[in-house]
Amino acid sequence: MKSETRPAEGQMDSSSSSSSSCCKRKAEDSLQSDSREKRERLEISSQEVLSVKDVCDLIHYITLRRSHSVRKPSWFGLGDKRVSRVNVMVLDGLTQSHFYRYFSLFRHLRNKYSARWTLAPSSGDLLTSDLLSAEVTVCDRAAETRAVLPAVLRWHPVIRRFGLSSAGLTNFLLTQQEMIKQKYPVKGGEGCEGFVCTVSDRCVTDSSPLFGLDCEMCLTCVGLEVTRVALVDSSGRCVLDELVRPPNPIIDYCTRFSGITPALLAPVSTRLADVRSRLLQLLPPDAVLVGHSLDGDLRALHLVHPHVIDTSLLYRQEFGRRFKLKHLAQVLLKREIQSEVRIGHDPCEDALAALHLAQYFIRKGPREVVEDHLEDLWGLECPEEDDSDHVTSSSRHSSPLRFGHALSRSGQSAVFLGGSVEKSGSLSNQQCRRHQCSSDREVVCVYRRVVQSYTLSVLHFSSFRNTLNQTAAMGPHLQQVCERLQQMCVLYVGPLPSDTTETLVHRLLKHCGRLWITRLLHYTHEVHAEVVFEHLEGAQLALEHLNGLQINGCIIKARRPVHDLCLDLDLRLSERQNDPLNARLIYVSNLSSKPHRREDQLLTFRQFGPIQSVTSAAEHAGKRSRHAFIRFECADSAHAAVGVGLQIGNRKLSVCHALTPPHMTSWTHPVTTETSADRAEQGEECDERLLERQMKKLDARVGKVFRALEEICLSVVILPGHRSDGVDHPGLCFIHIKQTPECLL
């Protein structure tokens, strides 16, 4: 969302009417009083920095939650999203500083990924290895359960698909990939031209209604066509039972199975479009259709519905074999259907049986269903484990559970694509297929061919690191990048009185933001000061508030440095304002250092709209930070807060649109005394145009991989960061779940 940095209260007309100011102060005092009486408190948090282990835990949870009780990470919420695959891209050699220095070049990373986190620095090689061979964090109770679980249950196809602890009907819905694989009609799918889509919600819940559906068909000159349709609701009541006259001549009535005879269809005038309209009226938006091999029924109805439970795939067997509905009803429901005594099947009876089978599975859960019916349904025996077996099993499972082993045992697969297969860790070929690629381009090409074959894919892009190794040392190069970022926070202030000290400069500017460096310049005709703010917002507020200020006869002016690093500074600041992460975020400075007053000052911003969170910088030298970032629930509230100046008592609050993303702590880094000129003389200055080309290529490859991802896939992009000479250069972690256009909020 585009936004403009508006003047804060310091630029407003100081001669506004006294009555208006008085009313505003009374309203603010009233807000403060109410907040004290109600003892409201804002939750103030500091920026969260992720580690490689945090990212690994998220990937473990996504891929293994159906087969193992993996601990859910607290820092990332999936909601009701059912992720099918995970893709990880590691851009080796890149840091957070690279991303924000070349912000405009990372078009896909900026626009396609909805979440960013600062990542603690790590080697790209070690990160890839740790990701694939890390230890899985599971609940203790789950580990004990697996220790005594017989192998015949652990490897059962139902347990491998749904896990041990899945509950609720949403866990047993067919994914879109499963629907495509099982030839279900899907929107835009092959052979689905002219099909009608039901009106359905994007997401269903565990309380959504179930509807059993079954159709009987006759053979016409064009194939099987519907001649009877039945629908039962979740209570078992038949809400639709209609005979349908097909548009084409009937060759075979298939009476033995369908129960349809010429005499039965003779008076019928109902057409397929009529019964389909009835179905659309009867099904609520969150309806879940249940049936046995329901793909054939939906194709015959020329109907597309996204939320389906197929009982033939619920009670699954090895190698894709399926039980007949009659056998499932007899064993599990103790019910006789499709009796040989009666001619033909009753679709109401079949739809009701499928409904009850689904409800039984949901109520019992996969583990109890398998344990109760391992012998009578699947014809398998569950061996009794003696004490020695139990001890052996317990000792075996007391060892750490590695991610590669857990992924393989759950019937899933992983692939590593990159420059060196050794970077994929110590996993066997069965646990992770390795493919060595000679270039980043080959990585993308190979991945696009195998995208649908693996649950987890890890892509290691190493071209930037290789180029950097050939042209410049990593330490000096990062110093160069950080200098360019830091120049955005630099201001020259002056002229100042001749007796000015650094302490006076600090007092003059501290209401705008925390200062990183303050240095007086005495070699100019008049005294000036060079100041470096910790955040871009501090420099922006100083530019707006200081110009024209008079001190001891000196009219002060604040200005940016004038050299080649700052020629495109306005454009880069505009890019920061347009960053989607900052649309609802404002920067507030000159807050009180006293906790209660500070909190009351922050609470006054609730008059502009609901506040989602307040982020405060860490304490510095034992002093509480005087600035904070406020995130509103909507962007309009942020615009309104910036457009109105706030004065609480004798303290003016400085407010502007946020330019710093919420995950970033500072724009400044420790610097060495070595200058750019020194590095250029040593041949360590990296060619800027070469760097820009590399950034564009990397971003383009990220975009190609993202487009190749299937829907409901979790995409993670990692910029590993770098650590050298005791200086940490943090990385970045981008996360987004690719969704269909209908699912986008």
TrEMBL record:
Entry's Gene Ontology molecular function annotations: exonuclease activity; RNA binding
Entry GO CC: nucleus
Keyword Nuclease set for record: yes
Keyword Acetylation attached: no
Bias-annotated ranges (Basic and acidic residues): 25-39
InterPro entries: Nucleotide-bd_a/b_plait_sf, RBD_domain_sf, REX1-like_exo, REXO1/3/4-like, Ribonucl_H, RNaseH-like_sf, RNaseH_sf, RRM_dom
Stretches the record annotates as Disordered: 1-39
Record's keyword terms, sorted: Exonuclease, Hydrolase, Nuclease, RNA-binding
Domain RRM: 489-563, 584-660
Domain of life according to the entry: Eukaryota
Family annotation (CDD domains): REX1_like (cd06145), RRM_SF (cd00590)
UniProt cross-references to PANTHER family, sorted A to Z: RNA EXONUCLEASE 5, RNA EXONUCLEASE REXO1 / RECO3 FAMILY MEMBER-RELATED
Name assigned to this protein: RNA exonuclease 5
Species the sequence originates in: Carassius auratus
